[in-house]
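Lecture notes, unit on protein representations.

Consider one protein chain, 269 amino acids long.
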Amino acid sequence: MISYIRPMTKFPTFFISHGSPNMILHESPAREFLSGLGKTLPRPEAILVMSAHFETDQPIVVADEKPKMIYDFGGFEPEMYTQRYDAPGALGLAVEAAQLAERAGFKATAATGRGYDHGTWVPLKLIYPEADVPVAQISVQPHRGGAHHAAVGRALAALREKGVLVIGSGGATHNLRALYTGGYTDADPAPAWVADFDEWVRDKAEGGDLDAIADFEKAAPFARENHPSPEHFLPMPFAFGAAGEGAKGERIHASVQRGVLMLDAYRFN
């Protein structure tokens, strides 16, 4: 369990687009945004990240004391495979998060041996480069839909009262086929099928419509085109739900890579 003596900061929750793994090597608006985000926040007691790259059938929270690095990508610069993010694990947070989810009716467990995948260590290396805040990572369940993830988030909303920073790490859009074969460049604006989806998300998030965000696969225009598979969007309803009842979102960053990969970020409070 997370214990504390002094009053805790009640953090907002965040959805961030973690982009390409080598974002950490190259200047971009998204990299600049993430590099400044930590400076706008008090120091959290611990961080809980839902990563789009940790897929399971039921919620699993990583409980390693010293999580290993996972280089779950290929074809990038050699220095990408020597990157380190040695933040300590958050064992107490992992156990408590699993227990809260289990009490809410989910078959959640805390487990060891997974480590940090790039959906966690890439953005955190920019947000908290000192790697001195304990981190626990929670999985996505791609076959269980947005409402499931919103409910998991709501089950964990009380963690905000204990100084825990909750982050959903995925992608506002994530059609890699269009990214690599669509012929778009970084100079191109988002085509209509990307822009329409992106603005629908902004409208629903800023309007506090968690139900619509959770039902994005049916409700949003061009949902399948922007998310051929849902795992990169599902951390958004999770983060939205973790902000508690009545929360609303605010888009705090918007940029695009090669016309089709939106790298938006949202704060929920």
